Amino acid sequence: MFGGGDEEKDVELAGSYDVFMSWADTLYKRGDYLKAIKSYSQALQFRAGDQLCLVSRSKAYLRLGDCKEALRDAEAALQDNKDYWRGMFQKAEALFMQGDFEFALVFYHRGNRLRPDLDSFRLGIQKSREAIVNCVGTPDIVRLDTSGDLSFFKAQVEKKVKKRLANPAAKKESAIVKRSTVRSANQDRTIRQMLGELYGDKAYLERLLKSADEHTDTGREINKLAEESLQYLDTRTEFWQQVKPMYARKYETRKAMTRYRPPKTTSQEYTLSEIERLDQLLQEGSHEAALKRAAKVMSVLEGYTETQLASLQAYKAKVHSVQGNAHLELGNYKESERHHQADLCLGREHEIREAESRGLDNLGRVFARMGRFQKAIDVWEIKLPMTSSPSETTWLCHELGRCYLERSQAGRAREYGERSLQAAQEAEDDTWQLHALVLISQAEVQSGHLSSSLISFELAHELAEVLMDATAQAAIKAAIRDVNARIAGKEEECRQRGPKERVAEDGAKTKKATGGFWSK
Question: What is the reported pTM?
Answer without folding.
Answer: 0.48
